[in-house]
Specification:
Rossmann fold; 2 domains; 26 helices; 7-stranded mixed beta sheet; 9 strands; alpha/beta
Amino acid sequence: MKRVLLMGNPNVGKSVVFSRLTGIRVISANYPGTTVEFSQGTMSVGDERALLIDAPGVYGLEASCKAEEIALAMMEQAEAVINVVDATNLERNLHLTLHLLERNVPLVVALNIWDDAQHKGIEIDVEKLKRELGAPVVPTVAVTGEGIRELVECVSATMQDGRVKAPELGGEPTKHSLYCASCTMKSCCSDAPRSHAAPRTEDERWTEVGRIISAVQSLQHRHHTFLEVIGDASVKPVTGIPIAAAVLCASFIAIRLIGEGLIRLVFEPSFNTFWMPVLLRLNAALDPNGFLHAILIGTLIDGRIDFIQSFGLLSTGFFVAITMVFPYVLAFYLVLGLLEDFGYLPRLAVLLDTLMHRMGLHGWAVIPMLLGLGCNVPGIMATRVLESPRERMIASTLVSIAVPCASLQAMMWGILGRHGTRYVAGIYLILFVVWIVLGRILNALMEGNSPELILEIPPYRLPSVRTVGYKLWMRMVSYFKEAVPFVLLGVLIVNVLNYLNTFTIIADATAPFITRAFGLPKEAVFALVLGFLRKDVAVGMLGALSLAPKQMVISVTILCMSFPCIATFVVLARELGGRSLAKATLIMLISSLGVGVALNLLL
């Protein structure tokens, strides 16, 4: 495996660059025969993986201390070196850069902390700096990930070209063969770079640093704009977490108002006005005890078609997919598009990146989790933004088990809230703990590496109505093409099973175990099994059983964690495939049963 060495002065953000490039899984060790510690991990370089070594922080390469000796030894075994430079203190950092250039190593300079330099009025002519150094220079903001993708591309080009002798000082300026032979990036290459191949004395080196600084850097006074101040605050934990809480709270309020408003004012009246007469005519034409009636219309409730409880393909199937799920999907994608185009979502991903890494994911996985709080269907579909099957498996399983949808949350508050807010809050706390613990367990058990988060952080800007509207339209078309048919197929399959009394047989068979393990009455068993069809309806059935608060907490928690509703389950099967779905189902059963038994013993 090829080696890339990460070098820089102490406290230049080198470790943050390292974590961006390698993810959270790193190996720390002492250099042989010393107590000097270094870290190593793997990074993606083109189509292959390379070993990235985080060398000890040094100010030069005179081998005047053990750290510099080790850095020199590591450099001899590396195919490329990434020199992390503090853009706010360029003069001090370029001393090490010149040392590296004089040793003729394939070098890429990461001009880090670029945002702070701009905020402080430090203007650096990057193109001129490339020519002065004779090496590629990439401005980066490691905290947010800005420039990391360009840095990786420059490293890839440098490694492909290999170690080639640079032109001698005083010779005709030519394109630097170390990195320009295969690099196509304008930001990476310069046409007439200087050469620093000849060794210098310390005085000569500092004189050269001063000359470069005079040529490429200027200072000017400027004040931060309001959006720059908010943008910086959004990615710092102390200020970013309160901002995230406020943004998410406002988003959920907006989503719920939009979703419930569409359901109450548009979709329910439309179904009652236009679709109910069609079903009534079909109901009159079919044998009420026949197979087709049971599949298409479902069970009549008090002699009437009930869109929620009848569970027919044309009644509940259409109503769930279009009236109960679609408005929340529409509202979520609208708010998501606004936050995305405003520039907040990448900052939220960066803010939560460390937490998500502990569960084998990266910060961008927070998006499916947020979507799942409105409806698990778009939450599962949103796992497509994750790169590997391992990530999608972990994220989809967590959404299905520990992220309650909006309709389920509404029923939780309506049924359990009357016993006291602390019981509802307790369920949220239990699910959050399960989300963390289960994520850590899946990360430890599933093979693969924790991925790095490489994304660009755009400046805050006002969203374009046209752009947001176009993306919303495309996402809605995708929902109707890819989700609705599978939801209807799932309802059809479950209706056939229900017609064959499969669920009644399951309820009767599991009743002895459930009553002993969970402390629930036998009457609650059918509601738990029915949760596979509609969890919110199942919670409503539990509310009619006059259960004690403890029993309600246990039963609602089990409902939240066990099989998702049929709509989510079918989309989950489509996204994961049969083998991964079987694994996710087994995890759901084990975790829900384990938590249910634990709650029965502890409460």
